[in-house]
Amino acid sequence: MKSPFLPTGQIVNTHGLKGLVKVMPWADDPADLLDFDRFFIDGTEYAVEHSSLQKSMVLLKLEGIDTLEDAVKLRGKEISIARADVELEEGVVFIADLIGLPVYCGERELGKITEVLTPPANDVYVVKGQREYLIPAVKEFIEELNPEAGYVRVRLIEGMEADAD
């Protein structure tokens, strides 16, 4: 079952004396976190009173976190958004929903997705089984991506299967 929360960053420090926290975002674009009006920490909901960018970090003023002492208690905590608060475009999936999915080439299971690399050109799925595969997340290689049913089907080209058997 999918978690109702999606981890989006980690509180790495405090900022100032009035309870602001500094978040290291795990989003492709840190500014994306500025669109949310609530976050969750350890399952507790916090409304956002104010948010801004500071270089590659996000500064958040969360409701009820009003002092430096309050903010210090959150240092090191993971911060999440509610899955229901995000609308995805057609064909877009959360990386968190890909991790652990079995990957098939024909009827043969190659392994499971253990990581998604995000270089500039396109995402790359790291699939580990009896060996490791690096599979570009493009239509030439991905035949079917079905996180709801719990699998991915791929097409490998010559050279990707060297030393496979």
TrEMBL record:
Domain Ribosome maturation factor RimM PRC barrel intervals: 97-159
Subcellular location: Cytoplasm
Keyword Chaperone: yes
InterPro entries: PRC_barrel-like_sf, PRC_RimM, RimM, RimM_N, RimM_N_sf, Transl_B-barrel_sf
Keyword Hydrolase: no
Gene3D superfamilies referenced in this protein's UniProt entry, alphabetically: PRC-barrel domain (2.30.30.240), RimM (2.40.30.60)
Domain RimM N-terminal per the UniProt entry, residue ranges: 8-84
SUPFAM superfamilies in the record: PRC-barrel domain, Translation proteins
A GO term, aspect molecular function: ribosome binding
GO biological process: ribosomal small subunit biogenesis; rRNA processing
Keyword field: Chaperone, Cytoplasm, Ribosome biogenesis, rRNA processing
Chief place where the protein resides: cytoplasm
GO cellular component: cytoplasm; ribosome
PANTHER family: RIBOSOME MATURATION FACTOR RIMM
Family: Belongs to the RimM family.
Summary of subunit composition and partner proteins: Binds ribosomal protein uS19.
Record comment regarding domains: The PRC barrel domain binds ribosomal protein uS19.
Function summary: An accessory protein needed during the final step in the assembly of 30S ribosomal subunit, possibly for assembly of the head region. Essential for efficient processing of 16S rRNA. May be needed both before and after RbfA during the maturation of 16S rRNA. It has affinity for free ribosomal 30S subunits but not for 70S ribosomes.
Annotated NCBIfam families: 16S_RimM
Protein name, as recorded: Ribosome maturation factor RimM
Name of the encoding gene: rimM
